Automatic annotation (TrEMBL):
Name used for this protein in its record: Alcohol dehydrogenase
Pfam families per the UniProt record, alphabetical: ADH_N, ADH_zinc_N
Species lineage: Bacteria, Thermotogati, Deinococcota, Deinococci, Deinococcales
Gene Ontology molecular functions: oxidoreductase activity; zinc ion binding
InterPro entries in the record: ADH-like_C, ADH-like_N, ADH_Zn_CS, ER, GroES-like_sf, NAD(P)-bd_dom_sf, Zn_alcohol_dh
Gene field: adh
């Protein structure tokens, strides 16, 4: 098969012909229909992920067709159209047994713990519990674009934040995760206030359902601006960017008994931000993380897509060849577009 392979971190991946994967007894092989290009792939290529062993093939936002099935797999057959979460749970550890595969103790992550989907084929372990059947109406590019950003955002807003109709949802950072959260919050009946430093991204947030927006560069106090606009503070607030300042603002702008969800990654020297824990106590705030979404909870999200309540296709950026995907990967720190770029030709 053709695959994008890198031998060393930060060396440009090359397209090579490598042996086709074979299914493990608990796994399947997918013919990749489409795969998203994500900042996590860039972090991996830069050498920031200790799970990666060289040489390596990136890619974890996958949609495709089952072409081979391991001996122990019962639920899946060649020809099935599927996607899967970027964290696939082992099915045996206590977290998986409790239904929390997104925090499995022995997780399989294509494109990190194993070769990923910047290739014609990809092997998937733990297939029985982690594949998700795609509705016929959902094309591969849109399914791949759900990737980690849209699905993680869905979990953050609907499952961890538990936002309800009529509540105020504040979204800090209007990149791929934040714009997804705006769309999802609106679809669940929330009133959304979007926060960013870029007027173009805030305009996009309004198109996707934000009722009001705050440009942090244009107000003296972002927290006070959100509190004023929401009549006393947000019920649910997301740090969708992953930065000490947005994390602080997201906690500080909550009303009493509000819920903060940390979705944006806090890495390196930003991993331990100062938070207003005095307010967490005095206002009984709740703090959550969101780390992907378990496969068994996908039907709720897919149902909202099928019914038209959610339209993730609106967030798709460019459709790329495998060569174009390599270029998008290695230049990601220089050209951060707003849409989700997807490879659909291998
Ligand atoms: Zn597990
Ligand atoms: Zn991703």
């Amino acid at each position: 098969m053709r695959a994008a392979v890198y031998e060393q971190f930060q060396d440009r991946p090359e397209i090579r012909t490598v042996p086709d994967p074979l299914p493990t007894p608990d796994g399947v092989v997918l013919e990749v229909g489409a795969t998203g290009v994500c900042r996590s792939d860039w972090h991996g290529w830069m050498g920031h992920d200790p799970d990666i062993r060289l040489p390596h093939v990136p890619g974890h936002e996958i949609a495709g067709t089952v072409v081979a099935v391991g001996a122990d797999v019962r639920r899946w057959r060649p020809g099935d159209r599927v996607t899967l979460p970027f964290v696939a749970g082992c099915g045996r550890c206590p977290e998986c047994q409790a239904g929390h595969q997104q925090v499995c103790e022995q997780q399989f992550q294509p494109g990190f713990t194993h070769w990923g989907s910047f290739a014609q084929f990809v092997g998937i372990h733990y297939a029985e519990q982690n594949l998700v059947r795609l509705p016929d109406s959902l094309d591969f590019v849109t399914a791949a674009s759900l990737g980690c950003r849209f699905a993680t955002s869905f979990r953050a807003v609907a499952q961890q934040g538990r936002v309800r109709g009529g509540e105020w949802l504040a979204v800090h950072g209007c990149g791929g995760v934040g714009l997804s959260a705006v769309m999802i919050g609106r679809a669940l009946g929330a009133r959304v206030v979007a926060v960013d430093i870029d007027d173009a991204k805030l305009a996009r947030a309004r198109e996707l359902g934000a009722e009001v927006t705050v440009n942090s560069r244009h107000v003296p106090d972002t927290v006070q601006a959100v509190r004023d606009l929401t009549g006393g503070g947000a019920h649910v607030s997301l740090d969708a960017l992953g930065h000490p300042q947005t994390a602080f603002n997201s906690v500080a702008n909550l009303r009493r008994r509000g819920r903060h969800v940390q979705v944006g990654l806090l890495l390196g020297d930003q991993s331990r931000p100062a938070l207003p824990m005095d307010a967490v106590i005095a206002r009984e705030l709740e703090l959550y993380g969101s780390h992907g979404m378990a496969a068994h909870t996908y039907p709720e999200m897919l149902g909202m897509i099928e019914s038209g309540l959610l339209n993730p296709a609106a967030l798709i950026g460019e459709r790329l060849s495998l060569e174009g995907g390599i270029e998008a990967l290695v230049t990601m720190d220089r050209f951060a577009g707003t849409g989700v770029n997807v490879i659909d030709r291998f």
